[in-house]
Design a protein that fits this description.
heterodimer; A: mainly alpha; Four Helix Bundle (Hemerythrin (Met), subunit A); 7 helices; B: mainly alpha; Helix Hairpins
């Protein structure tokens, strides 16, 4: 089934991102993880979120990260490598979190939640595209967060440009 | 097509979250730490979208995940700008070296 292919792909490339020492390989395996997650969004009937994931993450954030790698590394003296520290503690903490989350999820029996039981009847098949509904919602129910989000993006844009400028040379 | 069980999506999301946490804790290069944070954002988004599947009339989960993506993009832009400034100032982007240079 397609979901499990995407899931295995996401986990393997995520693990490779953590294990590899080469920064560029880490960036490209993050690309595979993000693409797999976008595929899983499509399988979960979230087409608009999937397209947004492709455009914002793969088209924007990942390119930004690759630029960050290239601008913050000297290729000549092999500092495109990323050493790992705290290996024991990191593995311990992450493993414990994984085991705890997995145990909780398996014990919680989320599929038996009351509101999921009520809503579960009209699944799947009659799902339409979510684009129209999301557009209506963005302009009615969540219009205030939508506008605040645009303000946040503007602030982030100005802030990033201001931080990144070289102040010694300018003015 | 048979429906994907909710537990499997949650387990995948837990695995991605743990991998992101592992990257944030163990990696020394600041950009890889940012990649780990992106992985954690994705794990959270996966949960939101998974539950939103059972809520086709309101789609609150999907709307929230859109805002999460937006905040993640803004965070990545500002954080990378800070990393570039740190690199120009300390001549390294490794977190531990920056901390030891600061203590001297």
């Amino acid at each position: 089934m397609l979901f499990y292919i995407f899931a295995v792909l996401a986990v393997i490339s995520g693990a490779y991102m953590v294990l590899t020492r080469n920064l560029l390989y880490a960036g490209f395996s993050l690309l595979i993880t993000l693409l797999s997650v976008a595929g899983i969004y499509v399988l979960l009937f979230a087409d608009f979120v999937a397209v947004t994931q492709l455009m914002v993450y793969v088209g924007g954030v990942l390119v930004l990260i690759l630029f960050g790698i290239m601008l913050s590394s000297r290729v000549q003296d092999k500092s495109v490598r990323s050493e790992s520290g705290n290996k024991v503690w990191g593995t311990l903490v992450a493993g414990l979190v994984l085991v705890g989350l997995g145990y909780t999820i398996l014990q919680a029996d989320v599929a038996a939640l009351p509101w999921l039981q009520e809503a579960g009847a009209e699944l799947p098949g009659e799902q339409k595209s979510t684009v129209q509904l999301i557009g209506i919602k963005l302009m009615t129910d969540v219009v205030l967060p939508f506008e605040v989000a645009s303000l946040l993006l503007l602030i982030a844009l100005i802030g990033a440009a201001y931080i990144a400028t070289d102040k010694q040379k300018g003015s | 097509m048979a429906q994907i069980p909710l537990e499997h999506i949650l387990l995948l999301s837990a695995a991605l979250f743990s991998l992101g946490l592992l990257a944030v804790i163990t990696k020394r290069h600041a950009v890889v730490v940012l990649m780990g944070i992106e992985l954690i954002f994705n794990a959270a988004n996966l949960n939101l979208v998974a539950f939103s599947r059972h809520d086709p009339a309101l789609l609150q989960g999907q709307l929230f995940s859109l805002f999460v993506i937006l905040v993640a993009a803004a965070e990545a832009a500002v954080a990378l700008a800070i990393v570039l400034r740190v690199y120009q100032h300390f001549k390294t982007a490794h977190v531990s070296e920056v901390v030891s240079a600061e203590n001297q």
